[in-house]
Amino acid sequence: MTLKMTNPVAVAATKAGFSQATGYRLKADPTLPSQKKVPRGRRRSDPLGALFETEVLPLLKSAPGLRPVAIFEELQRRHADLSPGIRRTLERRIRAWRAEHGPEQEVMFRQLHEPGKMGLSDFTDMGKLAVSITGEPLVHRLYHFRLAYSGFQHAHVVLGGESFVALAEGLQNALWSLGGVPAEHRTDSLSAAFRNLEPSAEKDLTDSMEGLCTHYGMTQSRNNKGVAHENGSIESPNGHLKRAINDALIMRGSRDFADLPSYRRFIDVVVGRINARNAKRIDLERACLKPLPARRTTDYQEVTLRVTSSGGFLLRKVFYTVPSRLIGHHLRGRVYDDRIDLFLGASFLLTLPRARATRHGPHQHVVSYHHVIHSLRQKPMALLGLTYRDQLFPRQAFRDLFDMLLAQTSDKQACRMLVDLLALAHDRGCEAAIAAQIEDDMRRKQIPDVAALRARFAPRADALPKVEVRLGALAAYNSLLSAPTMMQEAAA
């Protein structure tokens, strides 16, 4: 058509590469051949027939949320001869009808984020990753913090559920790692943290959250309950982070870790790699953050604990043992997510690992044989029916040996031998070596020789210090008796 503007039809057709007849035909009717095609019609009869108009549409109009599979099953009940192959046709027809006549859907409005304005916190469950510590499954969550503008992230392993203590510790770790404070801090509705709390406890939690944000000069905000997309700047990154951690676990070749600090370092490395990719934006936003306060604020819950005659205290259905010299005293406890720090007055005493009991489950025990071994020496038979006997044994070898002794010897002999072994491990600090010897003896189906173990782990004679005591002459003490008289004379 372009060549025809400057050339005769015959010349333009030749230059275009087709016959003169085609050139004259196009001049008479310039419509393209592709535009002359009649749209392809249905090649087979409609498998739904009149069912869509008479039966499907009334269902869609009366119940807009009805799933296509439910409508398909209803049609099969009404019409037994209906082919199962029409399901996909029905789903496509319903989808097309809803696109034209269905209800309006909610629109997500993308937001512009300013640097230094908003940081977000959330918790995400890590159960599907199947992480373990020395073979034991680790039930945990991740506290996840993220800046909306730059994408800076921080993750903290949480052993319990969603709580103020876990949020306060994780948030402060994130802010001090970041080196600044955003203007606003947003969370979800924290319904898990408020669940089952009394009104007074809910007020305390609310006040604690406000106090935490006030200390750092942040404005606190929450999204509406059940509307997760209002926290979308962290809800979606939760999934990205867990996928990155899962990839790193696969590359590592094992999901088992030697201890909890090793796993926490692993998480820090994964998050650090993500932050490295956003380093430029993070540096840009860091310049817009407010400065940190002079110090951190409270990230624990303080409780008062009374040590009972059982040699410990009960906290939230968990019994903890402490040195027996504290029986009768009231201790101050700082309850963190993974530990409890104990104080007598202002003096720090010790740190205990924190355990948790389910709401309707049995009580749990956190015990140490070092705290009670002196009393067990006097009352070894108490071991037989002790409520926390299995938790008292520091290693599996001790438990297996006790079960074997109960089966082969008397109860008294079994209790006496285990108490002697625990006492030896306490006195000489040789718990691991004794456990190894027990395992070796059990493989040979022998009972450990306690006397031989005492001799083996007794201090060597040549290692004992030599102390030489020189006694003074008795006559030298006479000068001490006359000393007061000499002093009186000197004073006169």
What structural keywords apply?
492 residues, alpha/beta, Nucleotidyltransferase, domain 5, 5 domains, 4-stranded antiparallel β-sheet, 19 helices, 15 strands, elongated
Characterization of the model:
- By secondary structure, the chain is α/β, with parallel strands linked by helices.
- It folds into 5 domains: 3-34, no CATH class; 51-98, no CATH class; 118-286, Nucleotidyltransferase, domain 5; 301-366, no CATH class; 379-461, no CATH class.
- The protein is 45% helix and 14% strand.
- It is built from 19 helices and 15 strands.
- The chain has helices at 9-16, 20-28, 33-36, 51-62, 68-78, 87-101, 164-178, 191-194, 199-216, 232-252, 260-277, 279-286, 369-378, 389-392, 396-408, 411-428, 431-443, 450-457, 478-491; strands at 118-125, 132-133, 136-137, 141-147, 153-158, 184-187, 219-222, 256-257, 301-306, 312-315, 318-321, 330-335, 339-344, 347-353, 364-366.
- The strands form 4 sheets. It has a 5-stranded mixed sheet with strand order 5-4-1-6-7, sandwiched between helices. A 4-stranded antiparallel sheet has the order 9-12-13-14, with no helix packed on it.
- A hairpin with a 2-residue loop joins strand 10 and strand 11 (318-321).
- Helix 1 (9-16) packs across helix 2, helix 13 (369-378) packs across helix 16 and helix 15 runs antiparallel to helix 16 (411-428).
- The chain is elongated.
- The N and C termini lie far apart (143 Å).
- 21% of the residues are buried.
- The model has no long low-confidence stretch (mean pLDDT 86).
